Amino acid sequence: MSLLKKQYNVHWLTGQFCEDSSESMYRRSIKTRVRFESSLSLIVAAVIFGMFAITDYSLLGLTREYYLLITMRIVVVSLCLLLAYIIARRGSYSHKIWLHGMPLWILATGIILIVPLRPESLSTQVTAVVVATMAFYLLIPNLLTVVTFASLYLSTGFLVSAVLFAEIAPVETLRIALLLVMTNVVGFCALLRLESLQRKQFSLLHEARDQNRQLLKEIAHRKSLEEQLRMVAERDALTGLNSRSHFMKRAKALLQSSRLEKVPFSLFMIDVDHFKSINDTWGHSQGDWVLTKISEICAHSLRPTDVIGRFGGEEFVVALPDTGPDDALIVAERLKTKVAELPLKEEMSELCLSVTIGIAIAHSEEVDLQALISRADQSLYVGKRDGRNRVVMYRKRTEEE
After folding, report:
1. Phi and psi for 345 in degrees, rounded to 5?
2. What is the per-residue pLDDT across 15-57, written as a single tens digit (0 to 9) for each?
3. Are 161 and 13 in the same domain?
4. Is 206:5 a contact under the CB 8 Å cutoff?
5. 191 and 255: one domain?
6. Mean pLDDT across the chain, nearest whole number?
7. How many of the other CB atoms lie within 10 Å of CB of 22?
8. Strands 307-312, 355-362: pairing kind
9. What is the DSSP string of 94-130?
10. 284-327: pLDDT as tens digits
């Protein structure tokens, strides 16, 4: 909001931003447009100024005054065309203001010089000065301050030339002076309003862009927060594995897909043996370290299509799609062996780390995920009852026991 206030701070007399940085930014933004419009308007002005040579000939004929006028017009037109070319190639509204202002002074000088060479046509020249003044303000792009000084130079120079060379009466002088003053006032007010409106429009545009950038940042920030919340909801904080709820969601989808494809589906329940003793002997921090290492071993030993999650406490659960009993036993035994081979910290060298794994297989029968977990849990209970550190496959007799 403070930036917007700065950009709206337009000087009441010049129509420019009071802050140099805002004004420079604005001028740079319109540099290309000003180059084109300035060059085009200068070419048009030069052509019109040169075409009045026809009128000069009809009034003066092949006289000394005519040759002087035609020479002056050729010089003015040539300089204007040259400046139009230079502005089109190298013009800079922010650093080369003098380059954009020079054509106005050249045109004004040319118009003033017509008076001593054609004093009898003063009435038509007054109209030309009024039109030229309005063109300075409204047709040839330039800063208000530059245009004002060039227009005042044109009006003052024309009025002085008219008094000196056309020998007009004081009343006529006053009438022309009032007309030129009114022309300058109207032109000044029109350009001041235009300059102010253009800069306010520029400010509004930048405000909208700033708001869009802030909105994009806010959207990105919210997406980041949503991603973090999703990670918190989907991942176990200690091990980084799937949380229980997220595992259930993914495992249900895998089980449903296995049914449709008519392929076996295996599920492991993994329990760390004597985990309470680990916490009691070495502390909860060491117990957390053990859980982290076991989760890493399990995650690295499974396929990308398998899903593992922390079921709670020291229990882990694994879903293995397209895995039959034989393959499930092989994977489970591999996991059990890798856990037993896990390098422990020096202070835990006396610990014999092991896990017990219960396996349940879903074939073609209609069994939901909760029932499958219950079967795997029953197998796990049998393994722990029989001495731990073993892999147990679910059998019907397990239920009977």
Report:
1. -65, 155
2. 898 888 888 889 888 999 999 999 999 999 999 999 999 988 8
3. yes
4. no
5. no
6. 90
7. 21
8. unpaired
9. TT-HHHHHHHHHHHHHHHHHHHHH-GGGHHHHHHHHH
10. 999 999 999 999 999 898 999 999 999 988 999 999 999 999 99
Band (pLDDT 50/70/90 cuts) for residue 174 is very high
Residue 218 lies in a domain: no
CA angle 356, 359, 361 (to 5 degrees): 175
Helix (H, G, I), strand (E, B) or coil at 315: strand
170 and 272 in a single domain? The answer is no
Confidence band of 8 (pLDDT split at 50, 70, 90): low
Domains held by the chain: number = 2
pLDDT > 90 in the chain, percent: 65
Rg (CA), the chain: 45
Taking the CB of residue 57, how many other CB atoms lie within 10 A of it?
Answer: 14
Helix extents (H) in 302-324: none
Phi, psi of 231, deg, nearest 5: -65, -40
Beta bridge partners of residue 310, listed in sequence order = 316
Q: Distance (Å, rounded) from C-alpha 292 to C-alpha 289? A: 5
Structure tokens at 120: 């009898």
Helix axes 170-234, 144-161, angle to 10 degrees: 170
CB of 357 closer than 8 Å to CB of 392 = yes
- Considering the domain architecture, whether residues 52 and 161 belong to the same structural domain is answered as yes
pTM of structure: 0.62
Q: What is the DSSP letter of 165?
A: I
Domain that holds residue 323: 244-400
Same domain for 268 and 316, yes or no, is yes
